[in-house]
Amino acid sequence: MSTHTSPRIEFVIANLRLISPKKWPDVVEKTGVPLGTLRKIAYRETRDPRGSTLDPLHAYFDKQKTKIKPPS
Questions:
Q1: Is residue 41 part of a domain?
Q2: Boundaries of domain holding 25
Q3: How many Å is the maximal CA-CA distance in the chain?
Q4: What does the pLDDT look like over 25-66, one tens digit per residue?
Q5: 38 assigned to some structural domain
Q6: What angle do CA 6, 9, 11 make, to 5 degrees?
Q7: Does residue 70 sit within a domain?
Q8: Does residue 52 form part of some domain?
Q9: Which long-range contacts (CB under 8 A, 24 or more apart) does 58-64 make?
Q10: Of 3, 41, 67, 70, which one is least surrounded by beta carbons within 10 A?
């Protein structure tokens, strides 16, 4: 199993950890990604989330203009 992770996954994880887990329900509401899936991604229980899961999360955090920069 590879230990390499994509910059997009790292961007999403970093942003999930930047905000309080109490705010994760807001992310769920705006992205449609289930809370359980969000938790698994944030705590690295899911090593390779599907693009259909990652895309809305990446777009959400990219629009938030958080301190973490999206991958180029």
A1: yes
A2: 7-64
A3: 33
A4: 999 999 999 999 999 999 999 888 999 999 999 999 998 865
A5: yes
A6: 105
A7: no
A8: yes
A9: 58/8, 58/11, 58/12, 59/31, 60/27, 60/30, 60/31, 61/11, 61/12, 61/15, 64/15
A10: 3
pLDDT of 47 reads 82
C-alpha torsion sign, points 11, 13, 16, 17: negative
Alpha-carbon dihedral sign for residues 29, 25, 63, 45: negative
Q: Tell whether the model's pLDDT for residue 67 goes beyond 80.
A: no
Quickly count: other Cβ atoms within 10 Å of residue 22's Cβ: 7
pLDDT at 71: 62
Cβ contacts of 21-26, under 8 Å, gap ≥ 24? none
* Per-residue tokens: 61: 């955090």
